[in-house]
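Example 9 (inverse folding). The structure is encoded as follows.
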């Protein structure tokens, strides 16, 4: 357990202190008055300009149901949220009551003692309704530390107009991807694929497609440097070197989105979280111009990763009951159905898929079977930390600074230093 007993004891002491001090002028969660009250600070990590507007509106809906509760909405950039939360929780000051946690962060935060266990609380209302693969990321050492809010995976977004102009079909394999990209370049002068180069999550589809993985948690073995991992690095390098794809080492999200939205590239690999922003682009004023298909298969098949976000409650929250209620509201069937309808995000509750908003979403309909077969990441405390060394080597491969063999080896060495005692 990293940082060990010290961090856990600190948070526990803060929680006890908050409980002891909460009864005089501001009842904790409204216990003494029988009504929820006080402030719930929520750190949302969704995309600014599209998703955040909807989530803020939903949070305001909770305030209408509970007029004595003030939800303090704070949008924290996704790339900063993980460390920002850990720093605040460790310091015992500035942490939110509720955080929107990427699925891989949940076991790490729980291991550090920063999250309140949710078993037996209102946050887990109707917990049997959650998709099993979504609920898997919320568990740590037989306790539940988060509630799944959305689940996702990845696909190829493509510009139908460019495809028609080039006379090509959606690529089913990596070999097809190279052929299609060449025809697009020859016919239209545009690049086939924009491959995001500054985020290792975009590498996982290629790694899984070659039959590889980051680690084998059951066997406590590092696997990223096995031949399948080397092959995956070779695949992405070849896509860039051949001209089938363009990439970058910085500002990957903005450059990728703007290039695709403006019609400068024909394809990008992305997930349902990108749909709302993509449809705001000039090329997709006619929404029907956006196509989505499975990520082209590698030699071992299709390998899209499972992703998503959970809502977790800070163990040191001064308003636990209201925080539990807020999480329950934000992950309810009705709220998830609204999110599916307005943002095309996939619900984590089985029954939400029967709601009309989800039924009417073509994006939800496409991604649901993709999610059902997506590859789970290992739900260990260190999962979130596996990406930093991987993205360093991934970027170096794409920009010609290292070889696939050296990248795989260096990543494996970093993992073994992180995962003490692993093979």
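The amino acid assigned to each position is listed next.
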């Amino acid at each position: 357990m990293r940082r060990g007993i010290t961090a856990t004891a600190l948070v526990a002491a803060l929680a006890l202190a908050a409980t002891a001090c909460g009864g005089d002028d501001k009842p904790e969660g409204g216990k003494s008055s029988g009504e929820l009250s006080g402030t719930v600070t929520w750190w949302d990590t969704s995309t600014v300009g599209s998703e955040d507007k909807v989530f803020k509106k939903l949070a305001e809906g909770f305030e209408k149901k509970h007029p004595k509760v003030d939800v303090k909405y704070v949008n924290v950039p996704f790339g900063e949220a993980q460390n920002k939360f850990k720093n605040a929780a460790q310091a015992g000051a500035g942490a939110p009551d509720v955080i929107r946690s990427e699925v891989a962060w949940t076991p790490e935060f729980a291991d550090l003692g920063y999250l309140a266990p949710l078993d037996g609380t209102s946050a887990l209302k109707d917990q049997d309704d959650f998709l099993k693969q979504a609920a898997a990321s919320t568990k740590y050492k037989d306790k539940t530390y988060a509630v799944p809010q959305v689940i996702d995976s990845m696909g190829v977004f493509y510009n139908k107009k460019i495809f028609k102009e080039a006379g090509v079909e959606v690529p089913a394999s990596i070999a097809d991807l190279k052929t299609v990209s060449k025809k697009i370049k020859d016919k239209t002068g545009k690049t086939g694929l924009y491959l995001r180069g500054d985020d290792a999550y975009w590498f996982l589809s290629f790694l899984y497609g070659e039959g590889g993985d980051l680690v084998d948690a059951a066997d406590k073995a590092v696997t990223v440097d096995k031949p399948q991992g080397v092959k995956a690095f070779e695949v992405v390098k070849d896509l860039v070197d051949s001209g089938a794809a363009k990439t970058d080492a910085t500002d990957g999200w903005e450059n990728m989105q703007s290039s695709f939205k403006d019609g400068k590239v024909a394809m990008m690999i992305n997930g349902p979280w990108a749909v709302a922003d993509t449809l705001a682009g000039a090329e997709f004023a006619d929404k029907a111009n956006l196509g989505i298909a499975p990520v082209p298969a590698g030699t071992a098949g299709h390998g899209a990763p499972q992703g998503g976000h959970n809502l977790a409650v800070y163990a040191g929250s001064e308003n636990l009951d209201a925080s539990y209620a807020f999480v329950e509201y934000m992950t309810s069937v009705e709220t998830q159905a609204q999110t599916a309808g307005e943002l095309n995000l996939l619900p984590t509750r089985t029954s939400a898929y029967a709601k009309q908003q989800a039924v009417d979403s073509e994006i939800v309909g496409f991604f649901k079977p993709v999610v059902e077969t997506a590859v789970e990441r290992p739900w260990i405390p260190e999962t979130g930390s596996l990406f930093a060394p991987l993205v360093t080597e991934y970027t170096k491969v794409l920009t010609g600074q290292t070889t696939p063999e050296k990248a795989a080896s260096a990543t494996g060495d970093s993992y073994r230093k992180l995962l003490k005692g692993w093979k």
